[in-house]
Amino acid sequence: MAKRIESTKNQLIKRLQGLKQRKNREKEGVFVAEGLRFVAEIPENWDVECYVVADGFAAENDISIFEKKAHTYCVPDKLFAQLSETEHPQGILAVCHKKTYDLKTVLQNKNGFFLLAEEMNDPGNLGTIIRTADACNVDAIFLSKGSVDLYHAKTLRATMGSIFHVPVFQNVSLEEISTILQERGIPIYAAHLKGRQYPYSLNLRRACAFLIGNEARGLSEEAASLCDSYVKIPIPGRAESLNASIAAAVLLYETVRQRTLPKA
């Protein structure tokens, strides 16, 4: 049975307001998933602390499915609007515990497929990249130190629930992870202006990793030096470059294309 909360002074309400700040999310090891579609993507085995629903949502939906999974609270629509980080809230959110992934486990796939990103600053771009990586069945994503918070509300919304499907490692040393990958014979490719070959000429049926640079300046010299090879994305038109998330999509889907085509 859902519990009723009406006061802004309630401890849970105060805590939810506090979780809008990164330092509090990191301290507690939780994040907030908001919206029906996003909440519906939460796997059955994911650790959910509680659900909070607005009266309007509860009146139009069967919330018993949430009550069976975790503590559920009902709040007035106006109060939920204060908790929401969207302009037009759908009336449901979940407080989820962050998941810790084991590096050895994600590296077990002999044809592993990985994505590394250096200092991604835009939450929408990062979320889109995670969603694309999920669609392409990437085994893991590694975000360098200095990247935007993985659990930023805009990042989470942009993933459209893919945050629950693909392992993401935050605040990694690109030098350390590149060494680990290369010790396992996994080449790292990066889209770079100095690239002399297109990704279409690479053998991406085997294990591989791609490195994506910062949206504004691209890859730093230090990060670029970690790669085995540079590749270029053809741009026959007049645009100088591609958005980071689009560039990532081009590279990831070339891997998908090669791996889904029958061998010659």
Overview of the molecule:
The structure is a single chain. The chain is 35% helix and 20% strand. It has 12 helices and 11 strands. The chain has helices at residues 11-18, 22-28, 36-40, 55-60, 64-67, 77-83, 103-106, 123-135, 153-159, 174-183, 221-224, 244-260; strands spanning 3-4, 30-34, 48-54, 71-75, 92-97, 113-117, 140-144, 168-172, 188-191, 208-212, 229-231. The strands form 2 sheets. The protein has a 6-stranded parallel β-sheet with strand order 8-7-6-10-9-11, with helices on both faces. The longest helix is centred in the C-terminal third of the chain and has 17 residues, at 244-260. The protein is elongated and about 60 Å long.
